[in-house]
Amino acid sequence: MLRFRNWPVDGLAAALVLAIASPPAALSAQDAAPVAAEPSHSHAFEQYLQTVRARAAREGVSKGTLDRVIPTLTYLPRVVQLDRGQPETPGNAAIPDFEPYRRKHVDSARIGRGRSKYTELRPLLQRIENETGVPEEVMIAIYGHETNYGAVMGNFHAPDALASLAFEGRRRELFEAELVAVLKMIDRGVPSYAITGSWAGALGRPQFLPSVYLRLARDGDGDGYADIWKSEVDAMTSIANYLMNAGWRRGEPWGFAVNVPAALDRNAIKSKMVPPRCARVFSRHSRWMRISEWRQRGIVVQNGVWPDDNMQAALIEPDGEGRTAYLLGSNYRAILDYNCSNFYALSVGLLADAVRN
Predict the structure, then answer these.
(1) Are 51 and 92 in contact (CB under 8 A)?
(2) Residue 187 has pLDDT above 50, yes or no
(3) End-to-end alpha-carbon separation of the chain, Å?
């Protein structure tokens, strides 16, 4: 989740990234079964795979792996259909309220399962938090959002899915790079069960794209293999490593709910920064100010507990003025790195708080 990192997503578009990162539970085996390419595609698909083969060879994938895998790749019209069916979110589209999304994704069932998993994995999570600084409950919340605590990891053959999406061409640069990455995984001995995932190639309990797996997956149990599919130790260690790599700050909250006074001058706190990515997401954040400055402007923390006055935070009002708002710390942005959607990141933070409490 991970993570089409340059896609500007928010609101309705959060559903796009979540659909990519975590396939719907209703997907059947028939949905994932290979479907033969249309006659008009077959020859062109085979020709395209030779281009991929040449690139993979240049990037170090062995001839043996390429000889074994490339001829078996199958075009999956179903994957392309799913990709084309994702909702578009024009830049001027109205962003819906967060509250309906929150009720669906931070519901009692997900909280309950999260608390059970938190209790089950507690000694492991404590060790990982001590090593990385990433809170135990945040790992669990990511796990819950991505795959419903390992229940829904997808059943699409990732090389076929990525080859189909790359060949289709709308985001060839992205999907071709991920196809080459999954070939590298195979070349390094990752077993066949491990290259099954979502229709867009996201893998394992954390739903890492292949390139993210190669870069950030970690072995947490000392067996020499980062098994994010079968090992919850490796999966939690890898999630924590991802967030640590994204800049997680030990001991800082991700954010917290606040009440905003009606008289707040929102023009005075408007951010003037132009973000290099996910502009639609970050455009909803105010400028950064110290907690002490937010207090001076009449912001009231809902739980009555303020963090350090020197902590920097930005304000978001995801349901509009007069509703619950949130002050967001730098760790919120680490969650956005996992999935660049305010709705996703807020839900992860709130689920984490609910699991811990």
Answers:
(1) no
(2) yes
(3) 25
Token pair 């969650």 in the structure block, residue: 335
Query: Where are the chain's structural domains?
Result: 12-88+152-231, 255-328
312-316 and 289-290 strand pairing: antiparallel
Residue 40 pLDDT > 90, yes or no? Answer: no
Q: For residue 87, what is the enclosing H or E element?
A: none
Q: Listing from the earlier edge strand, what are the strands of the sheet with 325-328? A: 289-290, 312-316, 325-328, 255-259, 300-301
210-225 pLDDT, tens digit each: 999 999 999 999 999 9
d(CA 248, CA 254): 9
* Interatomic CA distance for residues 270 and 285, integer angstroms: 8
293 forms beta bridges with none
pLDDT on residue 159: 96
**Architecture per CATH, 12-88+152-231:** Orthogonal Bundle (1.10)
The answer for residues whose C-beta is within 8 angstroms of residue 42's C-beta and 6 or more apart is 36, 75
In three state form, how does the secondary structure of 145-172 look? HHHCCCCCCCCEEHHHHHHHHHHHCCCH
Per-residue model confidence as pLDDT tens digits over 50-102? 999 999 999 999 999 999 999 999 999 999 998 887 655 545 567 899 999 99
Contact 183, 63 (CB under 8 A): no
- Which residues sit opposite 327 in a β-bridge? 256, 315
Question: 169 near 208, Cβ under 8 Å?
Answer: no
Residue predicted with more confidence, 224 or 16: 224
Other CB atoms within 10 Å distance of the CB of residue 309? 11
CA angle at residue 191 from 230 to 68, to 5 degrees? 160
Residue 256, beta-bridge partner list: 327
Which is it for strands 255-259 and 325-328: parallel, antiparallel or unpaired? antiparallel
What does the pLDDT average to over 293-312? 95
Cα–Cα distances in Å, from 162 out to 32, 227, 250, 272? 13, 21, 36, 38
Q: Which distant-in-sequence residues (6+ apart) come within 8 Å of 150 by Cβ?
A: 143, 205, 232, 235
Supply the pLDDT for residue 86: 62
Query: Distance between CA 331 and CA 250 in Å, rounded?
Result: 9
